[in-house]
Amino acid sequence: MLSVGSIVIRVADLERQLLFWTAALDYEPRLPLDDGFALLRPRSGQGPNVSLDAVPSERVLPPRIHLDLYADDQAAEVERLEALGAQRVHWPKRPDDADYLIMEDPEGNRFCVIDAGPGEAA
Q1: Please, are residues 85 and 18 in contact by the beta-carbon 8 Å criterion?
Q2: Phi and psi angles of residue 10, each rounded to the nearest 5 degrees, phi first
Q3: In a designed cystine with 51, which of 8, 14, 16, 93 is the match (CB 3.0 to 4.6 A)?
Q4: What stretch or stretches form a coiled coil here (predicted)?
Q5: Per DSSP, which regions of 3-116 are E strands?
């Protein structure tokens, strides 16, 4: 049997991305920290780990893989993520009734914030 143990994101500035993703997801780093790699795990114990790997990598758009982050209050979460340094990404093909917003972290790694509030089919 297989299970997802960690989703790995390549980063240039490990310290900055560590601050962003721990705050964004309410995760904590596994200690001791490594110079080029950080494993982040959910404080609640629920959900996959997210690892940050400080390895130079060419940015490809659209990305081949991205995170879908489910939010009970999408507007509040988007505002909170923007305050942490994330930015919204405009995509002209996004349907008007889409339940997601495309965002990117401070280094341009893209993710979606999905409206998973009550009554939404996430």
Answers
A1: no
A2: -80, 135
A3: 8
A4: none
A5: 6-10, 27-29, 37-42, 49-53, 67-71, 87-88, 100-104, 110-115
Residue 25 sits in the same domain as residue 72: no
- Token readout for 113 is 């914030």
d(CA 115, CA 72): 6
Torsion of the alpha carbons at 111, 116, 120 and 122, rounded to the nearest 10: 60
pLDDT in tens, 20-45: 999 999 999 999 988 899 999 999 99
Q: Which residue(s) pair with 27 in the sheet?
A: 42
DSSP state of 66: -
Contact criterion met (CB below 8 Å) for 113 and 77: yes
Angstrom distance (rounded) from CA 98 to CA 34: 39
Domain extent at residue 68: 64-122
DSSP 2-48: ----EEEEE-S-HHHHHHHHHHHHTEEEPSSPPSSEEEEEETTS-S-
Q: Give the CATH number, domain containing residue 20.
A: 3.30.720.120
